[in-house]
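Weekly structure sync, notes
Attendees: PL (lead), two postdocs, one rotation student
Agenda item 3: pending single-chain targets
PL asked that the sequence for the first pending target be pasted directly into the notes so everyone works from the same version. It is reproduced below exactly as submitted, 332 residues in total.
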Amino acid sequence: MPDHGLTRARTMGPIAEAVRMAGGSLARVFGRAGMPLSLLDTPDRLILLRDQLALVEAAIREIGDPALPARLSTATGIAGLGPIGTQVRSSDSLGAALRRVETVTPQLLQTATWTGLRRRGTEAFYGYAVTERIEAGRQANEVLALGYLLGTVRHFLGAAWQPERAVVTGAHLAARSEIETLLGCTVVLGPRAGLVFPAHRLDAANPSRTGACGASADAPIGSGLGTCVAHLIELALDEARPSIDGIAGRLGLSRRTLQRRLEAEGMGYAEIQRRVLIRRAETLLAADRLPIGRIGLELGYADAAHFSRAFLAWTGLTPRRWRDSRRGGPEA
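Predicted structure, written out during the meeting:
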């Protein structure tokens, strides 16, 4: 079974803005996707890829616009790819850029996906696929991705460039004519989503090469079930202390299956949760904005005394002494 994919919360920003502009309810959209609205204030946090797909579907339903994914990504273009856009703009040629995107996308933007280049005789296929077994929202996510693929190629071939055709998976595509207008080409149904264009265009030079290819402000996303569990626990802390059953449910697993798979990776749920709680506690204490009792409540403790005892066991310091040490203040 493939790892559960992760992606950065910044991918939801344009979706949320579109819902706002259409007069829709963000609370309802995020509620349907099972996600907290606080994610909009923390764009560098990681979420499950399946949650992003659910959010896109919820936004389409909220504002009644099946072409929304294509509208968003074609309007945003390469700027919506964040660090991937930097990789593209620093490549010598279109072909080099697409090969680089294939390497860095699962490291910096989203895991459990493939974005890459395949040559088929005189044709080039710049494709995108979700490798995790997710069906809900898959096609809408592919349409969203096509607009970003289009923006990548247009950096080299110009804003008016159009592919020969685009491909999405599935048996039916809603709002096909509108999506075709937005992408500037015919859209057909096939086994894998992507853009098709003449292979000789891969030699096109970068008209405005900038920056160094290796640099990125984003740390690699990482992989593995333990990583997903840690991020889900951290995300759930925005609302309440999560349970192992709740986290297992979010991953589509039973409690025992989750425990067994974590054990196979040499870890346990309790230890992962402890590390997340320590990290969140230290972040809140270092920010120096909330009283210690409130921080304890944020982390799911009944009162400051329970939190202080737990923090002392974790670090060897009380929360107050830890905070004072960060300020350079007294030890006592």
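Discussion points:
- The first strand starts at residue 6 and ends at 8.
- Strands lie at 6-8, 46-48, 113-120, 123-130, 165-168, 186-189, 193-198.
Action: rotation student to compare against the earlier draft before next sync.
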